[in-house]
Amino acid sequence: MHDDSRLLELAIAQAREGLAEGGIPIGAALVGDDGTVLGVGHNRRVQLGSAIRHGETDALERAGRLPAAVYARSTMYTTLSPCHMCTGAILLYGIPRVVIGENRTFLGAEDLLRANGVEVVNLDSAECVQLMTDFIAANPALWNEDIGVED
Question: What is the rounded average pLDDT of the residues 32-46?
């Protein structure tokens, strides 16, 4: 078994990078079953003017095209509970395990992941909670835009 806390640090570093770029502090890392980091990413909706570059989708994009067997033996690490879009990507590529930093500030589609046989592990990271709590307080309109909620 991988060291989930250590691997979540990859996603947290990405979240901090995104925040430093003026974006939303959510990061992700796709890691193979042997511990190989396949791709890391962070929310880049602001930076790229993108409708779909959340942390998880950015990590998938940056990992590039991979054989289905690689996805089927990987874990997605993400600082925040995956939204429905990112959950859909996780399910589409058959990623069997998701480790999240926290779901206090946003509860994504974890039930949908579980209903489709995905193992969901919540590390309830105080650092991840603080990153999002501070960001949401300072940028409520931007956060609402990111999750598709009207102001």
Answer: 97
Cα distance between residue 127 and residue 58, in whole Å? 21
> Please, are residues 27 and 17 in contact by the beta-carbon 8 Å criterion?
yes
Question: What whole-number distance in Å separates Cα of residue 47 and Cα of residue 118?
Answer: 31
Distance CA 135, CA 62 (A): 25
Whole-prediction pTM = 0.96
- 56 labelled catalytic: yes
Q: Which of 17, 21, 56, 127 is catalytic?
A: 56
Cβ atoms of 18 and 41 within 8 Å: the answer is: no
- Sequence-ordered alpha helix ranges (H) in the chain: 4-20, 45-48, 55-63, 68-71, 84-92, 110-115, 126-138, 140-146
